[in-house]
Amino acid sequence: MLDTERIRNFCIIAHIDHGKSTLADRFLEITGTVSKDRMQEQILDSMDLERERGITIKSHPVRMTYAARDGREYCLNLIDTPGHVDFSYEVSRSLAACEGAILVVDAS
Fold first, then answer.
1. 63 near 75, Cβ under 8 Å?
2. What pLDDT score does 3 carry?
3. What does pLDDT average to over the chain?
4. Phi, psi torsion values for 18, nearest 5 degrees
5. pLDDT tens readout for residues 59-81
């Protein structure tokens, strides 16, 4: 059983099309949660509309295991949140369930 000190709950928040799902994809790839042969763009976006338009409509939680440089294993619980203002309630609920958030800002 994993020590609760090594569990991190976080979400990714940003406006539409700022790279939340892309960042989530990289986390899944780096941690080895999804093998390279099964990896695809927007892997957490399961609805046809999400894939077609390239937006996240429904929050998607995922658990990843990460072996840190200190030799310890961490459990990362990630919620990829929607970016559209119409889903602000869902985003606020995700924030309430997390210890922290990664805020993605498109500064280009």
1. yes
2. 79
3. 77
4. -110, 0
5. 677 898 999 999 999 999 988 77
Radius of gyration of the chain (CA): 14
- In the numeric block, the tokens 């210890």 are attached to 99
- 89's CB contacts (< 8 A; 6+ apart) are none
Concatenated DSSP letters of the chain: ---GGGEEEEEEE-STTSSHHHHHHHHHHHTTSS-TTT--TTTT--SHHHHHHT---S-EEEEEEEE-TTS-EEEEEEEE---SGGGHHHHHHHHHT-SEEEEP----
Question: pLDDT tens digits, residue range 44-54?
Answer: 655 565 556 56
Q: What is the C-alpha separation between 45 and 42, in angstroms, rounded?
A: 5
Nearest-angstrom CA–CA distance, 35 and 5 = 27
Question: How are beta strands 73-80 and 7-13 bridged, if at all?
Answer: parallel
